[in-house]
Amino acid sequence: MLYRLPEQALVAIRLSFAIPREERLGEALARMAQGLVQPEMERQAGFWGARLALDRSATHVSFSIEGPATEAAELGAILREGLARADWNEGQVETARLVAWTQAREEAETPEPLLRRRVAARLFPELRDSVEAVPATVSPAALRRFWLHTFAPGRLQAVVVGPVTAAQALTAVGRWA
User: Fold this and answer.
1) What's the pLDDT tens digit per position in 5-37?
2) What is the widest separation between alpha-carbon atoms in the chain?
3) What is the pTM of this model?
4) What is the CB-side half-sphere exposure of residue 36 using CA atoms within 13 A?
5) In this structure, are residues 173 and 157 in contact, taking their beta carbons and an 8 Å threshold?
6) Which of 24, 40, 66, 68 could potentially form a cystine with 12 if both were Cys, beta carbons 3.0 to 4.6 Å apart?
7) 136 exposed, middle or buried (CB, 10 Å; 0-12, 13-18, 19+)?
């Protein structure tokens, strides 16, 4: 016996930001900032049956969400609201710094990420190493400055994929400012 389930149309929204080239600790700060907003954004995504993905490279930071196309506006709002947060206290920033340090060590010492870093360094020597040193201390004000400078509308590249109209896509990411 075969039961056909109704197809659920999905939408994917990806917001990418270039890490400022002059920011020496850009990837480390991006890793910390993503760690601070991830739990709440994942909780909200789960409410709508969506999945959140946060990615980093030596040059870019990305926030993506995939979920029901009928909820595109709400999914876009999760990304926008998550990126609007920058009100962390000393304890939260220190916890994020320690987590970032642990993740960076893990990436530096486990075989697959280590091999990936070495190949990238050979192929693209002009790029910064993707596992930058996590600073010994970071103040909430310093992380907030990085956040506000990096995750600004003028640095945004947005991609919306799925069965949505141009108007729906603009609604999902258009109320940024």
Assistant:
1) 557 788 999 999 998 877 778 888 888 999 999
2) 62
3) 0.80
4) 27
5) no
6) 66
7) exposed
